[in-house]
Amino acid sequence: MSKVLVSDSIDQAGIDILSQVATVDVKLGLKPAQLLEIIGEYDALMIRSSTRVTQEIIEAGTQLKIIGRAGVGVDNVDVPAATRRGIVVVNSPEGNTIAAAEHALAMILALSRHIPDANASVKRGAWDRNSFVGAEVYKKTLGVVGLGKIGSHVAAVAKTMGMKLLAYDPFISTERAEQIGCQLVELDLLFQQADYITLHIPKTPETTHLINATTLAKMKPTARIINCARGGIIDEVALAAALKAGKIGGAALDVFESEPLGESELRSLGKEVILTPHLGASTAEAQVNVAIDVAEQIRDVLLGLPARSAVNIPGLGPDVLEELKPYMQLAETLGNLVGQLAGGRVEVLNIRLQGELATNKSQPLIVAALKGLLYQALRERVNYVNANIEAKERGIRVIETRDASIRDYAGTLHLEATGTLGTHSVTGALLGEREIHLTDVDGFPINVPPSKYMLFTLHRDMPGIIGKLGSLLGSFNVNIASMQVGRKIVRGDAVMALSIDDPLPEGILDEIIKVPGIRDAYTVTL
Ligand SMILES: NC(=O)c1ccc[n+]([C@@H]2O[C@H](COP(=O)([O-])OP(=O)(O)OC[C@H]3O[C@@H](n4cnc5c(N)ncnc54)[C@H](O)[C@@H]3O)[C@@H](O)[C@H]2O)c1
Ligand SMILES: O=C(O)[C@H](O)COP(=O)(O)O
């Protein structure tokens, strides 16, 4: 049974899902050295933002197949290192969107009405109404930096509170911004005009210290800034200085350059500053959502199925993935088959997507085909994550063509591999949406489902050849489960596809090739 390590606090709903397929160890608060020591035992690691999954941890995780982040941000995971090792990294892109957006909105209102400090003062026994006179958000300008999932929800709710909305997001169209009721503007204009600035961007080299002494100086002295995105987008030293000097009105931060927050000037500031300990995703609802979302993906990957929200393989929505999954299995089977027929080192893989496949996303099918193709060389080391990289490193050139015309099947996939030992091709389709059928091998039409052990011969279409091959296999105690011949012209060349119950015994291929009329023979294990 697989083993999963859960090293951050995850809702029980996720643990229950993992327990269906694996032994689950929950070990919270591990020191990096402790994690390093035990990670080698585990097939999967499930985390939130507290566990740092460094390159060293990834390299020590020799059994790791998947790292599941029950949340959005994967900046605590060395994703490139995981990709190089073929480890899938998955997250839950939407499970805590509402929770994080509502936290930002709560920060806007709490900051405006001094709720944390007013509450603390009453709890201390005071009744001071004069110190906590607030400001209304109605008719004020909210500047949303990053109009993605969380930013859009914040904007939509702020709109209903009567706020005027400006947004900056270089990757969002004006139409999309207008749909949400935002005016898309340049960042400087947003800084100059906003009464509230809320950040909903990832932390990248471009966004690190986006809020610094220079940009803070562009803001209104009354402006309030909210960061429920990522620590490090704000230069905290510059922010504290601007707050102290009255150059900015207030700040509410949920995330920090270093977490847990250590010594900081921000702690010493008054009611104009609100600090929360990275609580954006901490609602009961969000924790159930992210735990289920990520545990299901870990379960699927441990069962050999693709994940729906992998951050290091082509992203596909669940609907698209559900539709493509059978075709990915077809692509992988064909890749594996053509790789074995081609033998040697493959240099070029031609992939033709026909019929309904021609209008689909091809990247997952190409990745699946490469995974199949490289299986003989790399076995379990190749997967959906690293198949592209491994193929590139081996100098395999992939050429993709599309033909939308529908022939005998709704969609067919044709792979042709050219390598050091020659060129071979296979075509396949799905019957009844799921059942894989081989419809062509090396240009000869056939119609057989693939089986674990197969034998293919290239021979002359002439009387007696099937009988001779049958007797030869019989003499080696090889049981034939099914057999089919494909030919283009009568008594021309033909291909025979046999499904056999067991692997072909050593040496028998040489005997097969000696049968008069048989020109070549290939055995494959799928
Ligand atoms: N505090 C929390 O607990 C918590 C919870 C969830 C998410 N988050 C964080 O919130 C942030 C937003 O998450 P999301 O789910 O909305 O992500 P998202 O990917 O849906 O949206 C991010 C948006 O930022 C935009 N963007 C990227 N670079 C930009 C730049 N340089 N300038 C302006 N816009 C830029 C993108 O175009 C995108 O629209 C992330 O940093 C995420 O890690 C925090
Ligand atoms: O990226 C996220 O999903 C948030 O920052 C939440 O982090 P958490 O799961 O550690 O609360």
Automatic annotation (TrEMBL):
Keyword Amino-acid biosynthesis in record: yes
Keywords for the protein's UniProt record, in alphabetical order: Amino-acid biosynthesis, NAD, Oxidoreductase, Serine biosynthesis
Domain of life: Bacteria
Reactions this protein catalyses: (2R)-3-phosphoglycerate + NAD(+) = 3-phosphooxypyruvate + NADH + H(+); (R)-2-hydroxyglutarate + NAD(+) = 2-oxoglutarate + NADH + H(+)
InterPro entries given in the database record: ACT-like_dom_sf, ACT_dom, ASB_dom_sf, D-2-hydroxyacid_DH, D-isomer_2_OHA_DH_cat_dom, D-isomer_DH_CS, D-isomer_DH_CS1, D-isomer_DH_NAD-bd
Tagged with keyword Cell cycle: no
EC nos: 1.1.1.95
Domain ACT: 454-526
Pathway: Amino-acid biosynthesis; L-serine biosynthesis; L-serine from 3-phospho-D-glycerate: step 1/3
Enzyme class, spelled out: oxidoreductase
PANTHER family on file: D-ISOMER SPECIFIC 2-HYDROXYACID DEHYDROGENASE FAMILY PROTEIN (AFU_ORTHOLOGUE AFUA_6G10090) (PTHR42789:SF1)
Function: Catalyzes the reversible oxidation of 3-phospho-D-glycerate to 3-phosphonooxypyruvate, the first step of the phosphorylated L-serine biosynthesis pathway. Also catalyzes the reversible oxidation of 2-hydroxyglutarate to 2-oxoglutarate.
NCBIfam families reported in the protein's UniProt record: PGDH
Protein name: D-3-phosphoglycerate dehydrogenase
